Amino acid sequence: MADATPAPQFPRPPRSFTDKCDREIRIRRADGDDRDVLVEMYVAYTDADRAQGIPPRERRDIENWIDILLDDGLNLVAIHGKDAVGHAALLAYENTAELVIFVHPEYHHAGIGSRLIRALLGAGQQAGIAHVWLSVQRDNHVAMNLYRSVGFETTNRDRSEHEMELPL
Question: Is 38 in contact with 77 (CB distance < 8 Å)?
Fold first, then answer.
């Protein structure tokens, strides 16, 4: 397990900001009303945009996956105009939660992922989640750097992926 030092206080959603491409982005809690915009965001993904088998490829599978995340997780959505451009969730298991985060490929490298993960961790702190973990492909250096920037530490390495953890 990662060092027992708690993470810093993270910002709580909702949040609004201008990204690095001068677009107005809103981050807020997601609910069932966001299902369709989230599905549309993930339908646009190519195989190159997927990691570890998610998001699923087929619309029906994406819809089922989103339903599970919305029913069982603490979810945030990043919105530009009327479109979802980012989605992050914490899926709780006893006293820990698994983190998943995706930013639409057309919105990469604009600072959305950094703001989204910090807001999600803030929402997790607010909800009383004590520990967060994730799994990331070993060659996904951009994501690993993002996770490290908020305090995640690598706790397990194998040939294809790393597990990372953060006490909240």
Answer: yes
| Closest to 2 in 3D by CA, of 160, 159, 147 | 147
What letter represents residue 98's amino acid? E
Provide the whole-model pTM.
0.92
Percentage above 90 pLDDT, the chain = 80
Task: Determine the Cα–Cα distance for residues 137 and 55; give it in Å rounded to an integer.
Answer: 14
User: For tokens 């709780």, what's the residue?
Assistant: 92
DSSP 30-93: --GGGHHHHHHHHHT--GGG-BTTBS-SSHHHHHHHHHHHHHHEEEEEEEETTEEEEEEEEEEE
Domains of the chain (ranges; CATH) run 15-167 (3.40.630.30)
Edge-to-edge strand list for the sheet holding 73-80? 15-18, 24-29, 73-80, 83-93, 96-103, 131-137, 161-167, 153-157
Q: How far apart are CA 101 and CA 3, in angstroms?
A: 23
